[in-house]
Amino acid sequence: MRPRPRSGARATSAVLVLLLSSTGLLALAPPASAAGEVRTEEARVTSGSGAETVQLDTTLYLPTGELPAPAVVLAHGFGGSKESVASDAEDLAGRGYVVLTYSARGFGGSTGQIGLNDPRYEIADLSTLLDLLADRDEVQLDGDGDPRVGVAGGSYGGAAALLGAAYDDRIDAIAPQITWNSLTAALFPSQTGTVEADTVAATPQDDRAGVFKRLWAGLFFGVGSVPSGGLLDALGGAAGGEDGDEDGDGTASVPSAGATRLPDLSALDPAAVEQTLTCGRFRTDICAAYQTAAATGTLTPEIAAVLDRSSPAGVLHRIEAPTLLLQGTQDSLFGLGQADANARGIAANGTPVKVVWFTGGHDSPASDRVTEELREQVAGWFDFHLRGAGADPGTGFEFPAPTALGSGQFVQGGSQTVVTDTYPGLDGTADRRSVPLSGPTQPVVTPAGGTPGALTTVPGLGALTSALGGSTLEIPGQFAAFESEPLDAAVEVVGAPTVELAVAAPAGTATLFAKLYDVAPGGGTTLPSSLVAPLALTGLSADPARPTTVRVTLPGIVHRFEAGHTMRVVVSSTDQAFALPAESTVYSVALGDGTDLQVPQVDGTPQADTGTSRWWVLLAVLAGLGLLGWVAALLWGRHRRRQVSAVEPDGEDVPLRFEGVTKAYKDGFVAVRDLSFEVRRGQVLGLLGPNGAGKTTSLRMLMGLIRPTEGRISIFGHAAGPGAPVLSRLGSFVEGTGLQPHLSGRDNLRLYWAATGRPAEDAHMAEAIEVAGLGTAIDRPVRRYSQGMRQRVAIAQAMLGLPDLLVLDEPTNGLDPPQIHAMREVLRSYAATGRTVIVSSHLLSEIEQTCSHVVVMAKGQKIAQGTVEEIVGAGGAVSIGLVDDAEADRAIEVLEGLPGVSVERTDEGLVAELDGTSRARALQALVEAGIEVDQFTPRRRLEDAFLALVGES
């Protein structure tokens, strides 16, 4: 069934607006290289009829390969346009797809006003674009007027993919990302009541009442209400500023630069002008509904009806297109429960569904590594379901391996994904573990107007919260807490835990916020992903002696609670991100009859990152990134007034950049000359060079200890220099430990942190001491320490506060082999969280095993830069040791089945000559064949490459 635009939309709630912004919080990554030249065609496509007719600004990307080919429509996120997904379109076209991008009505160069994915407007526009594709000779057809086509998009664009597949059965596959199931439940959530499912992240989707997400709504309505170019359309194109369809073919030419003419506002109704200036690009009924919701914080039946109209929840049973659902674990706008509900609804129709959770979301951009993995997921999905090529991606479930990195515990597995054959609970019951809680009945005060309010996360700024170690603020007297005993063994939570509470309220209603904290043995607390569960409770007893039992679903998370830690359920009366009651009152909160916390767990197969190139991008919206910067400046501007340097737009993706840096001294000695390189998020960079190469001088300039003579050093886009505020995001250990010998290791760490002037709770002291690994020796005077012990305390000191950029000079000096191995794992796991590490070392074997990238210096200049494999040289010979020598014959057979590979036996094992096959591919082939590999070592080591490079210099 294909929708037809109709006029006369009922009052819609601009609350929907908030949802739209999602995709803008994921960083764009460069596309894979195209297979050939891509040709593009720009056109304006007419959609709708009568007063609802709009011109959609489109770009068609045509590959040079075999045609006709399947097509992919890319939908952008809120605040973006077709330009937001241009690089993704080029990549897909390079892979042989015909790709169509467009700006949704009200965005970019398209006319019309924002209807928030209303099926009568935006989704009807999508069907118009499918008609366009069906008329192209380059597009493969499944039938007359039926193109072979997939649709992908993030957040606003993801919902368009879901709704499009529900209303237009010509769509053959979809890949919606970080999007919603029910706008009502997403914008007015209340996570209480029984869920009619037992999947791991099943969350109540109450469409009757909820707690209004005030901050998300305000931020994104502000973005969409800026008049921008949509002002002309809102005023009806009074001055003829639109270009029409002159030749009747359904398209209109793009106006030339400077062709737009401003309307004569004096000829218009003043009330209409005022309304347009207030509502910007939104339809006026949406604007009015948002203003009502923002003023009252109340979900009315009228608003709910409009939200439901733009929700996939009511039409999932129509979707027959195979669906890949990608959802982020760090998302306070559309949590894991939204993807869970979409998966259940689509699978119930017998449609193939695969669910992938990843580290990232609206609150924190995914790392480059994660983004690359997601690209591969989408590539495989479309290749199989549109082309019938490649391996069957199946209908399983993937999620990041649970770690305690959020609470400072550096554990292995940060770069792993866990895979299961099916989404837990779809075909049965998800596994849950009971964790007993205890705690007395407690009064919880609600202050008048909800002020002061608890602070858990700032919408869109989860990365900022993470930089502070997940710090939150609970107001004394405004919360109740219930705790487990210290855990005997680690507990991995994958999904949404549940708990029963007993609540009494004088007026019979209560607004509360439930959350699950990780409490370390030293008392440090972490709120995983900074997520909370709002509760809008009604029908409560007014008698604290006879409270009402309510079932609460806590936020869906992926987190590992380590042994010795405590699980703490906190129920508070305030949260600054939500609308709160105006009247003060006191609630009574206790544990319900079932005092156990029910924790979902998933037993899957860990799958390490292979490091192969990926291609898909989770659509990024430039307006969202701008909004992120605006809010960050609003929150932190008072502390950064001294900062006057220009900020580089890609600063968050490039934590460190050297540009033409030279350091010359007055005696004429040049320590560093014209040094340029950059380090990207998530990398571990090794800085190599012989004595006198300029490594330490470069690090001292980076840390602001000395100034460069020429050039610029930027950290997260800000100029680095003595006293620069951005240096607070850097942790370093360069040129000696600097520890006070008469103080204990613990006191040295406390003294160092106190000198920074930051709150003690931000230090993550317990985690730093865990890194040091000194046991009871941490409380002995440092003068009794060995060199290795001092080194470990100094490294822990550099990691205090979990800095985003970690700089270490010779970190393994004085450490024994087991300690070196442990430090290697710490650094790799640390970078796997999206942070960045720079290591300077003379131990080339350690650099080779620890670092992902290398910069080689000699005589003050850079002589080489690249990945370790690029520096060493791809291919070549490798030595292979097997766990079972009896597998040698089979290993030889597997390896020699690869292009250009020859193998010979030696006394030390197998030696394979790789000519045209990468080492990664050879190792992957052995692992896939079930052959256990004990050693896989290049015959040419980094040391050989280093000596050759330095000699050449």
UniProtKB/TrEMBL annotation:
Name assigned to this protein: Alpha/beta fold hydrolase
Stretch forming the signal peptide: 1-34
ABC transporter domain mapped to chain residues: 656-884
Region Disordered, annotated ranges: 237-261, 431-450
Transmembrane parts of this sequence: 615-636
Domain of life: Bacteria
Family of this protein: Belongs to the ABC transporter superfamily.
Keywords: ATP-binding, Hydrolase, Membrane, Nucleotide-binding, Signal, Transmembrane, Transmembrane helix, Transport
Gene Ontology MF terms: hydrolase activity
InterPro entries in the cross-refs: AAA+_ATPase, AB_hydrolase_fold, ABC_transporter-like_ATP-bd, ABC_transporter-like_CS, Galactose-bd-like_sf, P-loop_NTPase, Xaa-Pro-like_dom, Xaa-Pro_dipept_C
